């Protein structure tokens, strides 16, 4: 990384003393790839917000439905940014069940440990010609795009699906402390070819009286966005039906299981899919 | 994998018996993932993935149909001297207890801090191959393969001390379970 880039986007720290969002999410989904630090944080968070496990599950089921929905519409290339660990029914696993051997997936994360872990997991159940894990920074779209292209796994001159699932609510700060998440998303919209798709899910406190309870998440540097703010992230992309909605309400017919919410608003996350025309 | 390590890893699955003493660390094949991550976390994703793959290669013993009898004695220090702090140590101890419970050829014992020893020798491994026995002693940038009878004798004598001073397997398990609780308490503070 050039020094100028390093200055603008200070590298995310690597440490195992603090919980990792990727592994806490794995814990909430009931996975095996979380550690004591992550479990402990997850258990604390569940004590103040017991629905959190269902929130995580609803988000993962949203991802499943998005992947199947896009495969039905002919999408075969996925760039999953802020992917975390490729476990518990992640993009390549869902895609390979629906359309075996047909899709390409590049997982991107900024944590070297998560990426290394992903590579070893993909050694076990992935296909090196169709799956890759890249260490890149969401905040630096042009460089990330080059790194994704360099894998040779996806062809960025053709339409792709860019997945930003449950990642933009983690603050994407530049050196001046500005959250450049929305600016980066705008650049991803420019970088992809017409016919490409963008899928986003994002934590919110809107209509969900849990802000105080979610204080535990301050440690993960979360930022809440309103429905309107999440809609704005799609820019000039055409939102597919039903637009931005709760994760649990986005094409619920595409899944047989549901997360068990009394009302969809309990899913605490806005979600949507847009298409570049 | 460094060249000086290859004879050891080649021999390990074919040995009759392996006896290892570790005073300050966990050997790669017994490492839990977070322990490996914590050791190499400042490196790049590529390098960390290479370390993980190497560790996977060394774990062939766990799927072998005829693994050697493997005795490992740890000083308590191996668990406290963990990269990444008490959280990683907790994961590491649980991983080790799980492996020992699952594989009856793996015998894990511990020498607690309060047990006095004449001195703590550097780590070594007694490799019993049947015909060509040797002692494997690693240093930071290479290793010795000691096969002279007088060298082997010195290490055999030290090993006698090690097994005499170590807790039994059942006692070691209880000790490690207590250590997990103690480390978890430290994390809450």
Describe what you observe in this structure.
The complex is a heterodimer of chains A (277) and B (189). Chain A is of the alpha/beta class and 277 residues long. Chain A has a single domain, classed as Vaccinia Virus protein VP39 (Rossmann fold). Helices cover 35% and strands 14% of the residues of chain A. In chain A, strands 1, 2, 3, 4, 5, 6, 7 and 8 form an eight-stranded mixed beta sheet that branches. In chain A, helix 5 links the parallel strand 1 and strand 2. Chain B is α/β, with parallel strands linked by helices. Chain B has one domain: Endonuclease, Chain A (2-Layer Sandwich). Chain B is built from seven helices and six strands; from the N terminus they run H-E-H-H-E-H-H-E-E-E-E-H-H. In chain B, strands 3-2-1-4-5-6 form a six-stranded mixed beta sheet, with helices on both faces. In chain B, strand 5 and strand 6 form a beta hairpin. In chain B, helix 2 packs across helix 3, helix 2 packs antiparallel against helix 5 and helix 5 packs antiparallel against helix 7. The longest helix of chain B has 20 residues. Chain B is globular. In chain B, 32% of the residues are buried. The model of chain B has no long low-confidence stretch (mean pLDDT 93). Chains A and B meet through helix 3 and helix 6 of A and helix 2, helix 3 and helix 5 of B. Chain B: This is DUF5753 domain-containing protein. Chain B: InterPro entries: DUF5753.
């Amino acid at each position: 990384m050039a020094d100028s880039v390093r200055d603008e986007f200070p590298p995310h720290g690597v440490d195992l003393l603090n919980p990792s969002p990727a592994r806490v999410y794995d814990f909430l989904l009931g996975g095996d790839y979380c550690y004591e630090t992550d479990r402990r944080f997850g258990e604390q968070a569940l004590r103040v917000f017991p629905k959190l496990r269902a929130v995580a599950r609803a988000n993962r089921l949203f991802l499943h439905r998005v992947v199947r929905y896009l495969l039905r519409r002919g999408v075969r290339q996925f760039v999953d940014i802020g992917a975390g660990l490729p476990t518990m029914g992640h993009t390549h696993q869902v895609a390979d069940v629906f359309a075996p051997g047909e899709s390409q997936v590049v997982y991107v994360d900024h944590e070297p440990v998560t990426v290394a872990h992903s590579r070893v997991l993909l050694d076990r159940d992935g296909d090196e010609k169709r799956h890759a894990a890249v260490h890149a920074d969401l905040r630096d779209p042009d460089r990330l795009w080059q790194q994704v292209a360099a894998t040779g796994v996806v062809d960025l001159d053709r339409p792709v699906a860019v997945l930003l699932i449950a990642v933009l609510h983690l603050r994407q700060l530049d050196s001046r402390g500005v959250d450049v998440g929305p600016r980066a998303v705008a650049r991803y919209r420019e970088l992809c070819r017409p016919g490409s798709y963008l899928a986003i899910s994002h934590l919110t406190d809107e209509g969900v009286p849990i802000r105080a309870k979610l204080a535990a998440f301050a440690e993960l540097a979360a930022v809440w966005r309103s429905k309107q703010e999440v809609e704005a992230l799609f820019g000039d992309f055409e939102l597919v039906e039903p637009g931005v909605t709760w994760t649990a309400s986005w094409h619920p017919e595409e899944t047989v299981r549901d997360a068990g919410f009394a009302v969809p608003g309990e899913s605490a996350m806005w979600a949507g899919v847009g298409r570049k025309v | 994998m460094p060249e000086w390590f290859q004879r050891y890893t080649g021999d390990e699955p074919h040995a009759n018996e392996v006896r290892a003493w570790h005073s300050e660390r966990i050997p790669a094949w017994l490492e839990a993932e977070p322990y490996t991550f914590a050791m190499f976390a400042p490196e790049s994703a590529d390098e960390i993935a290479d370390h993980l793959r190497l560790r996977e290669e060394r774990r062939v013993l766990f799927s072998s149909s005829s693994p050697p009898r493997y005795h490992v004695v740890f000083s308590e220090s191996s668990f406290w001297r963990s990269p990444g702090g008490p959280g990683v140590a907790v994961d590491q101890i649980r991983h080790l207890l799980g492996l020992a419970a699952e594989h009856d050829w793996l015998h894990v014992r511990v020498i607690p801090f309060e047990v006095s020893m004449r001195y703590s020798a550097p780590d070594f491994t007694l490799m019993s191959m049947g015909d060509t026995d040797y002692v494997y002693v690693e240093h930071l940038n290479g290793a010795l393969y000691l096969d002279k009878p007088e060298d082997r004798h010195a290490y055999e004598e030290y090993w006698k001390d090690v097994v005499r001073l170590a807790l039994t397997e059942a006692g070691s398990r209880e000790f490690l379970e207590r250590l997990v609780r103690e480390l978890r308490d430290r994390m809450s503070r």
